[in-house]
Specification:
Number of helices: 2
Oligomer: single chain
Strand content: over 45%
GO cellular component, one term: chloroplast outer membrane
Subcellular location: Plastid, Chloroplast outer membrane
Keywords: Membrane, Plastid, Plastid outer membrane
Distance between the termini: 6 Å
Pfam family, one: Omp85
CATH topology: Porin
CATH architecture: Beta Barrel
Protein name: Outer envelope protein 80, chloroplastic isoform X2
Amino acid sequence: MGAQQSVHAGKAKVDFNVDFTQMLCEALLLPPIRLSIKHPSLFGRREKLDVLWDKGLNDSNIVVAIRRPRSDWLSQQSFVIQHSVTPEIAVHGLPIDNFTRSGSTGVNLCRFSLGLDLNEPVTSNWSSKTSINFEHIRPINNEGRSINRDVDGFPITCSGSLHDNMVVLKQESQYAVVKEDSFSRLNFQMEQGLPLLPRWLIFNRFKFVASQGIKLGPTFLVTSLTGGSIVGDMAPHQAFTIGGLGSVRGYGEGAVGSGRSCLVANSEFTVPLTKELEGAVFMDCGTDLGTARHVPGNPALRHRKPGYGIGFGYGFRFNSHLGQLRVDYAVNAFQRKTIYFGINNAGS
C-alpha cells in the first residue's frame, strides 16, 4: 500500500514501498517502510528467492522465502523463514478514550518461525494450502528484555517460562466464485499444535471467513462473516481479538474484547458519486461469545472490555494512480467517533 519504486540489479529486482496507512485520530507518525528483494533463479537452479522487510515505528517483520517451481499438476513448495517484533496491544492493550484506542502496556512479541508451505494445484473454484511450521514466541518489554508476566503479574506464556514453542500443522482451503455482477468467497483455516516434545503447545484452532458481494444497479453491497474457536493449550496472544480496522470500526485494536471464540459481521454499501469517487456506508459488529473468561489471565475482563461491540459510519473511496484513497468516519456504541485514513495500492 502506498508509493512504490522498483530497481533492477542484474536478475534481481528490488522494490521500495512506503505505506501511508494511518489513523488520523492518532498523532502523525512516520509511515512504515517496505523493502522487497526478488531473484528469479537462485544459484541458477530456477528457485525463486523473495525477501520482504517491513519496518514501522514500533514493529518490524522480515520474511525470507525460497520457492521451488514445479509442474502445474504438482504442489508448489516454499521454504519460509520469518522473524517479527510487534507490540501486543490487541490482547494486552488498555482501552482508552471510550474504547476508540488501545494503549500499550509494555508487552511485545518477538516471533521466529520456519517451515514448509505446499500450495495445491487449483481445481475448479477451490484452492488449498498445507504448511508445517516451528514457532518460537518470546514476550519482551519495551527495552527488549524477556518477560513472562504482564504489568499486573499475570502469565503471558502458556508454558510459564520466558517463551513458548510449538510445531503447527495448518490446512487452509478457499472457495471463490466471481461473476460480472457478484462474487462469493469462503475461507477455512485449521491449525493443529503437534505434541513433539513436553511443554510444547497442543491445541486445535479453527477460523472461517465467508463474504459475498452483489451489484444492485450502480451500487454494490458486500457482507462478510468471520468466526473461530480454539481448544487445548493456549497462550493469551493466541486469543481471537475484536475491534479495529478489518474487524469492528469505531474501536481500537482489540478494544471490544478477546476470547477463545469470536464472531464478527461486516456490511458495506458503496455508491458511485463520480468516475473516480465512491461513497460508502457501513456497519460492523462483533462478540467474543462469552469466552473472554477462558483466556489465561483474563486480560479482556481485567481491562473492562465489553465483549460485544457495534460500529457504523460512512466513508469515501477515491481511485487515483497511487491506488485507492479510503476515508472512514466511524461511531462506536459509546457515541465516540474515529476517522480512518488509508491508501490501498492497486497491486496489493
